[in-house]
Amino acid sequence: MRVEIERVVQEIRERYEEPLSLSDLGEIARLTPFHMARLFRAETGLPPAQFLTAVRLEEAKRKLLNTDKSVADISNQVGYTSQGSFTTRFSRTFGVSPGQYRKMTCLGPDAVEVAGGNDDASFAYGTVKGRLYRSDGLDDAAAFVAAFRAGPAGRVPARCYRMQRSADTWSISHVPAGVWTIEAVSLTSATGRNAVVAGSVGPVKVTPGAVLEVDVTLQSARSADVEGDRCSFAFALPELYGS
């Protein structure tokens, strides 16, 4: 990465709670705002403003999972002057509200990936979208679609999207570049612990700036095609549906 853009990335990570403007970032890079923005997008895959938002939201995720601070306090600490704006942005990005995201820890200590660290690639995002096809005909039922990292560490839903209706098109944005498995779960009309339908597709490769289309078929969780640990995610749905 160019040294000018490295300086900007570092400053964003250290000062994400501040109202950093393009002019501010241009001064950090010692470039004009326009030239800095063009180079920044070429190097990171995102415009500076979206990168700043991504850093803020990743920091918010850490605070939601690792502290007992209120959503209002966290919103202020990551640079938002309005809790409503923060909640809207968080929900649109991750598919669940900050409160629902915090509840996802009911899946276990490793249930939600917290991206970041020193890996700039974690902010080079792509988008995965598609349709769900249910075997039970409940197209009006709500559903969750999640992106899991492929491989041995793949039981971590790094991105999750809540659909109001299974028949609607779903879209998971801000998926880091890499290889993923896409899984979906929903409640069904059956009774008992296995009253869910689930399905998966993958591995699929996400590249920065690309939009990947994937369709997922949901079948009864009693099916041999559904792994036990995936059902653990499905069985948590009643808790996740709360605000």
The average pLDDT is 77
Q: Report Rg.
A: 19 Å
What is the highest CATH level, the class of the largest domain? Mainly Beta
What is the structural class? alpha+beta
Portion in helices: 25-40%
Order of adjacent strands in the largest pleated sheet: 2-9-7-6-3-4
Proportion of strand residues: 15-25%
Largest sheet: 6 strands, mixed
Distance between the termini: 41 Å
User: What name goes with the CATH superfamily of the largest domain?
Assistant: Carboxypeptidase-like, regulatory domain
Overall body shape: globular
One letter per element, helices H and strands E, the order comes to HHHHHHHEEEEEEEEEHH
Q: Give a count of the beta strands, DSSP E runs of length 2 or more.
A: 9
CATH architecture of the largest domain: Sandwich
Helical segment count: 9
Total tally of structural domains: 2
CATH topology of the largest domain: Immunoglobulin-like
Poorly predicted ranges = 107-123, 223-232
Can you characterise this structure?
With 243 residues, this protein is α+β, with helices and mostly antiparallel strands. It has two domains: 92 residues, Homeodomain-like (Arc Repressor Mutant, subunit A), CATH 1.10.10.60; 135 residues, Immunoglobulin-like, CATH 2.60.40. It is built from nine helices and nine strands. The strands form two sheets. The protein has a six-stranded mixed β-sheet, with helices on one face. Strands 5-1-8 form a three-stranded mixed β-sheet, with no helix packed on it. α2 packs across α3. The chain is globular and about 60 Å long. The protein starts with a helix and ends with a helix. 34% of the residues are buried.
